Predict the structure.
Amino acid sequence: MSVDPSQFRALLSRFASSVTVVSARDESGADRGMTVSAFSSVSLEPPLVLMCVDRSATLHELLLRTDMVGVSVLARAQEWVSRHFATRERHEWEGVPQRRGACGVPLVDGAIAHLECRVVARHPAGDHTIVVAQVERGDVAEGDPLLYFRGEYAGLRR
């Protein structure tokens, strides 16, 4: 017996997650990004993270080809950035403050953490691909995270 997709979505909506923008440069040198909430740490030694990317996402094919990705963990005030990169048609950086990481990937300015990662594995998983990446560089900043809970954006209550 298995849960149906709508029940599964309802079940997982109770899991609060951080909101990230995963970014890469395409073959023409253009910066691309997409909002990803299915992001997690995997290992401390070596430092590994994973992101789950829907196979129908427009950046899916790029993430299958690229060696380097950036991950920006969004701050509470950056809901608009998440919405910008969450639409299927909008993966360009026009109007989004950014900086270039040491590894060449674009990173969202003002994020509370930046990770620059080398892709080490890709695994098909249902209608998604799990992309595993080793963190090569990173930095943190002060601020509260942007969260996603029950289908809505949220923040911490302190």
